[in-house]
């Protein structure tokens, strides 16, 4: 076991604060990673504050991890000391069920182990994520990073990237398809970049008029202010696919109306359990055989495919780097939709903090 500096929430109403955790010694199949950067996902905030009602405390969030391999177990074949690697939202799954066998560990029928807030055999009973200086992960859940630069901006691909890439691929975003992305936050801005790179006609729906220019810079073909009924009416009935990344409860009918016959809106945003979305109107679905679906991150094989696609297309996230100690301020800004477009923690700041203590 190795004592490792971290930041943790000790309860739903406590800020995320310095703490110390133990990391296991690398087993035969493990990769030990020195964490360089960790992205800040809205799921970190939902979890730290128990907004999904399932948080185990203490909670060390962080599942957009990029770092360097410092040691490998004796049976590790795919990684060497010095490699640049990533870890996303999962660190284990059963490996035996149909979903795991299909490479979709994210839908493991026995429940995958989350990088944080996952069950563990260790005595603390809860996995600890990337708001820490080091992590030890089974090589099956470690990703190769081919990007040579901008490693901080690669970190958000590990969750925001795959969570948007997977449904865009599943619902065939590509040339000839009109795709809507709802919400320009961490997930949404990756959705815009990826759908554009896949060749779709991309329309961004934002509640924030000050994000129009950024939407276009990020390669949206059109930007619509979703609070303006006239702008929304012009787009009605014209979309093949809508990817809804909004973290807050809202009226889903406004976006269902955008779909053509047989179009699908996929929800990836997950509001707090105590404040769910109001139910959409059934007639809005049945009159055009529209679908509402959901999608959860992506499997390891598809995550590697997404990372390689991004390296090939020169895609990274637009980020604002923060020191570890500013994490609670970052959460508050995230709640105000004031993120451009992903906070990433420079883990050197935590290493320095720990050294000074
Ligand atoms: P984020 O950076 O906070 O972005 C959310 C965006 O939604 C905001 O920037 C804002 O964009 C828009 N928005 C906020 N409140 C709104 C409202 N009341 N009505 C309409 N739009 C609103 O969050 P994120 O990290 O992208 O995460 C988004 C959600 O996805 C979270 O719930 C997160 O937990 C979830 N998530 C799901 C998965 C999965 O596997 N399904 C994976 C990761 C995250 P505008 O200013 O442009 O309107
Ligand atoms: Zn996430």
In short:
The chain is an alpha/beta fold and 357 residues long. It has helices at residues 42-48, 98-101, 151-154, 160-170, 186-197, 212-217, 229-235, 253-256, 282-286, 300-313, 327-335, 348-356, and strands spanning 2-8, 17-23, 30-39, 65-72, 84-87, 90-92, 113-114, 134-138, 143-144, 178-182, 201-206, 222-225, 239-244, 259-267, 291-294, 319-323, 342-346. Helix 4 (160-170) packs across helix 5 (186-197) and helix 4 packs across helix 10 (300-313).
Describe this structure in words.
It is a single chain. The protein has 357 residues and is of the alpha/beta class. The chain folds into two domains: 2-159 and 298-356, Medium-chain alcohol dehydrogenases, catalytic domain (Quinone Oxidoreductase, Chain A, domain 1), CATH 3.90.180; 160-294, 3-Layer(aba) Sandwich (Rossmann fold), CATH 3.40.50.720. Helices cover 26% and strands 26% of the residues. It has helices spanning 42-48, 98-101, 151-154, 160-170, 186-197, 212-217, 229-235, 253-256, 282-286, 300-313, 327-335, 348-356, and strands at residues 2-8, 17-23, 30-39, 65-72, 84-87, 90-92, 113-114, 134-138, 143-144, 178-182, 201-206, 222-225, 239-244, 259-267, 291-294, 319-323, 342-346. The strands form four sheets. Strands 3, 4, 5, 8, 9, 16 and 17 form a seven-stranded mixed sheet that branches. The chain has a six-stranded parallel sheet with strand order 12-11-10-13-14-15, with helices on both faces. Strand 13 (239-244), helix 8 and strand 14 (259-267) form a beta-alpha-beta unit. Helix 4 (160-170) crosses helix 5 (186-197) and helix 4 (160-170) packs across helix 10 (300-313). The mean pLDDT is 97. Bound molecules: NADP nicotinamide-adenine-dinucleotide phosphate and zinc ion (ZN). NADP nicotinamide-adenine-dinucleotide phosphate is lined by residues 41-43, 46, 159-160, 163, 183-188, 206-208, 211, 245-248, 250, 268-270, 295-297, 334, 337, 339.
């Amino acid at each position: 076991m190795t004592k490792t500096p971290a930041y943790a929430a000790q309860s739903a109403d406590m800020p995320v604060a310095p703490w110390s955790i133990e990391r296991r010694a690398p087993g035969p199949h493990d990769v030990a990673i020195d964490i360089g950067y960790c992205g800040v996902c809205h799921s970190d905030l939902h979890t730290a504050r128990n907004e999904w009602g399932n948080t185990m405390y203490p909670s060390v969030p962080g599942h957009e991890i990029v770092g360097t391999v410092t040691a490998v177990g004796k049976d590790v074949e795919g990684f060497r000391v010095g490699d640049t690697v990533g870890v996303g939202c999962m660190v284990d799954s059963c490996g035996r069920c149909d979903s795991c066998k299909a490479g979709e560990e994210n839908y493991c029928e026995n429940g995958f182990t989350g990088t944080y807030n996952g069950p563990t055999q260790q005595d603390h009973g809860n996995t600890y994520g990337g708001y820490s200086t080091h992590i030890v992960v089974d090589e099956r859940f470690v990703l190769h990073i081919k990007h040579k630069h901008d490693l901080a901006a690669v970190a958000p691909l590990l969750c925001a990237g795959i969570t948007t890439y997977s449904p865009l691929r599943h619902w065939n975003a590509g040339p000839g398809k009109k795709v809507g992305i709802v919400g320009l936050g961490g997930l949404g801005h990756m959705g815009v970049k990826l759908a554009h790179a896949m060749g779709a006609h991309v329309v961004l729906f934002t509640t924030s008029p000050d994000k129009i220019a950024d939407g276009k810079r990020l390669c949206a073909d059109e930007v619509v202010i979703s609070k303006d009924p006239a702008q929304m009416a012009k787009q009605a009935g014209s979309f093949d696919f809508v990817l809804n990344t909004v973290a807050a409860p809202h009226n889903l009918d406004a976006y269902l109306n955008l779909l053509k016959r047989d179009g699908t809106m996929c929800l990836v945003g997950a509001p707090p359990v105590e404040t769910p979305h109001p139910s959409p109107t059934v007639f809005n679905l049945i009159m055009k055989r529209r679908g509402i679906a959901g999608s959860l991150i992506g499997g390891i094989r598809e995550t590697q495919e997404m990372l390689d696609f991004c390296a090939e297309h020169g895609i990274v996230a637009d980020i604002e780097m923060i020191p570890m100690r500013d994490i609670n301020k970052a959460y508050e800004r995230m709640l105000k939709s004031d993120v451009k477009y992903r906070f990433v923690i420079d883990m050197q700041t935590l290493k320095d903090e720990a050294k000074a203590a």
